[in-house]
Amino acid sequence: MTLSAGDISFFFGAGASAPFEIPTMKQMTRLFNERLRSEGSQEEKEVYGRVATELEKDLGEEKVDIETIFSVSNGLKEYNATNISPLALYASRVIFGRSLLNESIQPKGNHLKILNSLEIHFKYFVREACVLKENSGERIVNVYTSFFRNLDQEGRIGPPATSSLEFKYDYTIGPSLLPL
User: Fold this and answer.
1) Closest among 148, 152, 150 to 162, alpha carbons compared
2) Cβ-contact 115, 47 below 8 angstroms
3) Residue 97 near residue 60 (C-beta atoms within 8 A)
4) What CA–CA distance (Å, rounded) separates 44 from 41?
5) How many CB atoms lie within 10 A of CB 80?
6) Structure-model confidence comparison of residues 113 and 9, the more confident one
7) What pLDDT does 8 receive?
8) CA distance linking residue 92 with residue 88, whole number of Å
9) Can you give the three-state secondary structure of the chain, one letter per residue?
């Protein structure tokens, strides 16, 4: 079967930017942790560390990254019925005999202030870490030209009709790119 460019969609993960010196998610996690250790307040370090530690108990250290931690942070700030998965609600009722919605875990006062402060640190960090280096345009063209040529080696795919890249950000990263 011969495919045309219109028949195929490509989804690139965070690692697709690595050839352009933009850190992968694992690298961003390490770099953000280093920055937080040197520049964060004691309270920020404690809250961030507590979220990471609790997630690592279930997911393992390798699966807990900056995106996972800030997804929880955002979830805590906006804790309500629409932000809790139906599976979590069901499991809570069946396993523990109570609803998650009856418990008030939404942060208040100083805890909310710390979460907001961490979010600001995160936004600035992402903006700095994800900037293309000067003169990287030629490198981008070379990498993706090579990618599409490799796909076309057997003549199964025609060149793309247009050149467009689409990026999908999750709930945490997307808003971080908006103005403060």
Assistant:
1) 148
2) yes
3) no
4) 5
5) 9
6) 113
7) 64
8) 6
9) CCECHHHCCCCCCHHHHHHHCCCCHHHHHHHHHHHHHHHCCHHHHHHHHHHHHHHHHHHCHHHCCHHHHHHHHHHHHCCCHHHCCHHHHHHHHHHHCCCHHHCCCCCCHHHHHHHHHHHHHHHHHHHHHCCCCCCCHHHHHHHHHHHHHHHCCCCCECCCCCCCCCCCCCCCHHHHCCCC
Name the amino acid, one letter, at 26: K
How far is Cα 102 from Cα 34, in angstroms, rounded to an integer?
37
Least confident of 5-19, 89-103, 111-125, 149-163: 149-163
148 phi, psi to nearest 5 deg: -70, -35
pLDDT tens by residue, 123-134? 999 888 888 777
Q: Which residue type is seen at 122?
A: F
